[in-house]
Design goal:
Blueprint lengths: L2 H17 L4 E5 L15 H6 L7 E5 L3 E6 L3 H8 L5 E5 L6 H9 L5 E3 L7 H12 L4 E3 L4 H5 L12 E2 L9 H14 L4 E4 L2 H8 L1 E2 L11 E6 L3 E5 L6 H9 L2 E5 L3 H6 L6 E4 L6 H6 L5 E4 L3 H7 L3 H29 L9 H13 L4 E4 L4 E4 L22 E7 L1 E3 L2 E2 L2 E7 L4 H18 L2 E3 L8 H9 L10 E3 L8 E6 L16 E4 L2 E4 L3 E4 L2 E11 L2 E8 L17 H18 L5 H10 L4
Helix pairs in contact: 4-5, 13-14, 13-18, 15-16
C-alpha cells in the first residue's frame, strides 16, 4: 500500500470522526467471532494503517494514528509503517491492553471514544469501559466508521460449508451435542451461545474456507436442551448436508438473525456465554430478563483434548507431512548445490513446500502463511516474503522455514533452520542453545493439571543461562484440522496461569524456543507434542510429551561441545524414530536425504 493511500484513508476517517463528534476511534484486529485470521470485510486495521500482521490495534485521534502490536511484529511493523505517519506502539505481548492505558491517559473528561461493539470482545469491552469511565470519557459502541469511509469494503465470504466426515471425525455430531448439553447442565444453563468459529466447526463436524488457513466458516450457534440452531449465510449449506444436519436436530437460520434470537430469550432461559469468546455487541443483544452464566465454552475444553482415534490420525498425518518435507529439503539442498541454477528466493520456498504437501493424501491447504527468512529476515519473527520484497538465498548463513499444513487428519506446524553454505561458531552456539531448550521441555514430566504457562521457563532455562531471551511464547495449542493456534493451553509467560490453562491428556501443543539477532539471523526450532500419561505415583498423575512432528533437525548447525550426553541421546533417538516412520513413505532423493540427515551424532 502506498504511503499516500494510508494518509488519505486516515484523513477520511478523521473527517468522519469530526462529523460524528468522536475524539478517538479504536479498530481492533477482530471480527464478530474474535478470530485471529480475518475475512477481508473485517481487515479494517490493515486497510487503514498498511500493517499486515495478524495482531494489532489501531487508534486514531484528530492528531494521532498508531498501531499497538507485540514483539513478534515489531520489525515488520517498523518496515510497513515507515513514513506513513502511523506510529508503532510496542507492547510486550498480543494479550497486552496497553492501548487502553494510553486512551485513559490521553483522553480528556467529556471526550468520546468509539469502537464497533460487533468486533469488541466482551472482556476487553469491560476493561475499556471501566478505564474510560474513571476518566469521565464516554464510550460509544454503536457505530462502525469503516462503513462510512471504506467505499470498496469486501463483502462476506460465500464459500460452501462441508462435512468433516468419518473416519477422520471419529465422534458424531449428536455425541458432541449431548456432551455440550451435559456441560451446560453442570453449569446450571439451559441455553448456550457460541460465536468462535473453531468451536462451532468442532461441535457440528463441519468445515469451511471463509478464513485464510483455518478451515472454518462464519456462523453463530445457539444450543438449548432440545434444539441447536446454526446461524449461517444463505446458500452456504448444500442440500445433502442440510438434510444431514436436520436429521441430527440442527436447525438453520440466517447469519444476521443471531442477535435477534438472543433478544427473544426470556426469564425462563439461563444462557451460558464465554466472556473471552463473545463480543460486547452479542452480549448486549441478550434479552434483559434472561439470566446469564459466564464460563469457558465447553467445546473449548473438549476440542483441545484429542481422542485416541484423533491422535492416531494425527500421527499418520505427521508421517505424510514429514515425507513431504523430506522431498522439499532434498530439492532445496540439490538446488543450492547447483552452480547453474537461477536465483533461489524466499518466495520460491513457500511455493515448493506447499507443492510438496499438496501431493500428499488428505492435504487441504497451508495452516498459515509460510515464513521463509534467510539470515537477517529470519530474525523477523513473523516475516513474510512477497514478490515485491524478499531475499535471494545465496552465499552463507541460516535459512529459517516455519510452515504447516491442514489435512483431513490433523493440523501441522513445524519450524526448521538449515545451513546454507558455511555456518559460523556463533550460528552453531545459538542453534544449539535453542535445541537444548526444545529438548528440555520435550523431555519434561509434569503433574496432570499443571498450568501450561508454568512450563515456559523449562524451555527458556538453557537460553537464559547464556544471557539470552526471546520475545514470544514457547508454545500454543493446535487444533485437529482446525485452527493452528488453539486454546485453552498456552505455554507463554504472557498468559495468566488460570485454572482453564491446565494441561490434560490429549492436548497438542507446540514447543518452539528461539534466538533472534536483528539484522543478522533468527533461529527457531519447533515440534508439535501430545500430552500423554507418564506415571501415577503417591503424589498423583504425571504427564509427559510425545513428540508428533517427524522431520530431521540439521545437525550441521550443532556445537557438539555444549551438548550433554543425554541431549545427544535425545537427538539420536528422535532421528531414529524419524527415519523409521518416514522411510516407508519416501523414495529416491528424498529417501537418501532422510538417511543422511538422520545419521547419529
Amino acid at each position: 500500500m502506498s504511503l499516500s493511500a494510508v494518509g488519505d484513508r486516515i484523513a477520511s476517517l478523521q473527517a468522519s470522526m469530526q462529523r460524528h463528534r468522536i475524539d478517538a476511534v479504536v479498530v481492533p484486529s477482530a471480527d464478530p467471532h474474535l478470530s485471529e485470521y480475518l475475512p477481508g470485510h473485517w481487515k479494517g486495521r490493515e486497510w487503514l494503517s498498511g500493517f499486515t500482521g495478524s495482531v494489532g490495534t489501531f487508534i486514531a485521534t484528530s492528531s494521532f494514528a498508531g498501531v499497538w502490536t507485540d514483539a513478534r511484529y515489531w520489525t515488520q511493523a517498523e518496515t510497513e509503517l515507515a513514513g506513513s505517519g502511523v506510529e508503532l506502539m510496542k507492547i510486550p505481548s498480543g494479550a497486552s491492553l496497553l492501548h487502553i492505558d494510553w486512551l485513559a491517559a490521553n483522553m480528556a473528561p467529556g471526550q468520546t471514544v468509539a469502537v464497533d461493539a460487533r468486533v469488541l470482545g466482551l472482556s476487553t469491552a469491560r476493561l475499556l469501559s471501566d478505564a474510560l469511565a474513571a476518566r469521565g470519557v464516554l464510550l460509544r459502541t454503536d457505530i462502525d466508521l469503516l462503513d462510512e469511509v471504506w467505499s470498496e469494503r469486501p463483502g462476506l465470504p460465500t464459500d460452501p460449508v462441508f462435512e468433516h466426515a468419518a473416519p477422520f471425525a471419529s465422534t458424531s455430531r449428536a455425541t458432541k451435542l449431548a456432551a455440550t448439553r451435559e456441560a451446560m447442565a453442570r453449569l446450571g444453563a439451559n441455553a448456550h451461545f457460541i460465536s468462535t468459529l473453531d468451536d462451532i466447526a468442532y461441535l457440528f463436524n463441519l468445515r469451511g474456507a471463509d478464513v485464510s488457513f483455518n478451515p472454518v466458516f462464519l456462523a453463530h450457534a445457539l444450543v438449548t436442551i432440545d434444539r441447536a440452531t446454526l446461524f449461517v449465510g444463505d446458500d452456504k449449506i448444500p442440500a445433502a448436508l442440510r438434510a444431514s444436519l436436520q436429521a441430527d436436530g440442527v436447525h438453520l437460520a440466517r447469519y444476521d438473525d443471531a442477535a435477534g434470537a438472543l433478544a427473544t430469550l426470556g426469564s425462563e432461559t439461563t444462557l451460558l456465554v464465554d466472556p473471552r469468546r463473545i463480543t460486547a455487541g452479542m452480549r448486549a443483544a441478550v434479552g434483559a430478563s434472561a439470566r446469564v452464566v459466564e464460563a469457558v465454552n465447553p467445546t473449548t475444553f473438549a476440542k483441545s483434548r484429542k481422542t485416541s482415534d484423533e491422535a492416531a490420525h494425527v500421527r499418520a498425518t505427521m508421517e505424510q507431512d514429514g515425507a513431504a518435507l523430506c522431498e522439499f529439503f532434498a530439492w532445496l539442498e540439490t538446488t543450492l548445490q547447483d552452480p547453474q541454477r537461477d536465483p533461489l528466493t524466499e518466495v520460491a520456498i513457500d511455493r515448493h513446500i506447499t507443492a510438496a504437501r499438496a501431493r500428499r493424501p488428505g492435504f487441504v491447504s497451508p495452516s498459515f502463511g509460510t515464513i521463509a527468512g534467510f539470515n537477517a529476515n529470519g530474525a523477523i519473527m513473523h516475516y513474510r516474503a512477497t514478490e515485491q520484497s524478499h531475499a535471494i538465498i545465496e552465499g552463507h548463513g541460516l535459512l529459517l522455514i516455519d510452515s504447516g499444513g491442514q489435512y483431513l487428519g490433523g493440523t501441522t506446524d513445524i519450524t526448521r533452520v538449515v545451513a546454507v553454505g558455511n555456518v559460523t561458531e556463533a550460528h552453531r552456539r545459538d542453534f544449539t542453545l535453542v535445541l537444548k531448550g526444545l529438548i528440555a521441555l520435550s523431555a519434561a514430566q509434569y503433574p496432570r493439571g499443571t498450568r501450561s504457562p508454568l512450563l515456559d521457563a523449562i524451555a527458556r532455562a538453557p537460553i537464559w543461562a547464556a544471557g539470552i531471551d526471546f520475545g514470544h511464547g514457547t508454545g500454543h495449542g493446535v487444533g485437529y484440522f482446525l485452527n493452528v493456534h488453539e486454546g485453552p493451553q498456552s505455554i507463554s509467560p504472557s498468559t495468566p496461569p488460570d485454572p482453564h490453562t491446565a494441561m490434560e491428556p490429549g492436548m497438542i501443543t507446540s514447543i518452539e524456543p528461539g534466538i533472534y539477532r536483528p539484522g543478522k539471523w533468527g533461529i527457531r526450532i519447533e515440534n508439535l507434542v501430545l500430552n500423554v500419561p507418564a506415571q501415577t505415583t503417591g503424589f498423583g498423575e504425571f504427564l509427559r510429551f510425545e513428540t508428533l512432528t517427524l522431520c530431521p533437525i540439521d545437525t550441521r548447525c550443532l556445537d557438539l561441545s555444549i551438548l550433554r550426553s543425554d541431549e545427544r541421546a535425545w537427538i539420536n533417538d528422535y532421528h531414529a524414530t524419524v527415519r523409521a516412520r518416514l522411510a516407508p513413505h519416501v523414495t529416491g532423493a528424498a529417501a537418501a536425504w532422510l538417511h543422511t540427515r538422520t545419521e547419529e551424532i
